[in-house]
Amino acid sequence: MNKPSIDDLARNAFVDGQLDPVQQQAMQAYLHAHPEQAKELSAWQRDAQRLRAMAGQDSLPPNPELDPVVVRARLRSRARRRLAMAASLAVAVAIGGVTGWSARDMAAANRVLPMQDAMQAYRMFASADAPRPDVRADAGDLQGWLDDYFSSAQRLPDLSASGFQPVAGRLLATDQGPAAIVIYENAGQRATFYIRPPGPGNQFLAQGSRRDGDLLARYWSGQGYNYALVTSGDDASGPSLSSPNAVRS
Known about the structure:
Elements: H1 8-15, H2 21-33, H3 35-55, H4 68-96, H5 106-109, H6 116-125, E1 135-136, H7 139-149, E2 165-174, E3 177-186, E4 189-196, E5 208-212, E6 215-222, E7 225-232
């Protein structure tokens, strides 16, 4: 049976020596089974001891930035950012594998179906149990967020005539550069706009569409990028995109 994980409160209490004997025994057993975490908490304890020693010197003025709690919070924030980046890269590997990541020559890359990664991104990030997006905002904020990474790209498609509004976005990565997915919603229904640079097996695309299971992808290229609007293929009330020029001004 896997041992339960230890939350941040328990970690802080352990480092500060505030666990009762039973909790201390449980923590020691957990750290014995997880040597990497034991090493990390040991480093926290050493840092805390050094900081307390420095704070206790009369010659030094009080510095809130050196408080062990503040330092640990800062370290946890950095660790979360590293984990978030690692997760994004792992997702990019998962959805990019079908677009040529494992291709070693052009013949293999040419077998990749157009914008298959856009459909994979829809299944991973537009589902009800999808991970939390990088940004959640209104259309104006999302356009600004997208411009930070794709300044020369086409604007977000305007799907308001079909009742769909952009509500969230997530930055991804490909071996050709950053990609992104913007999620639209309309009374519980979802559609996604996907943008990525062209690459092996995914060169600039003529305007077209194709189905994959229950999904329909309409794709096109322009201004240096490939785009796709992905919707549920069984949803007759899904958003319409009459042409690649149906974008926000």
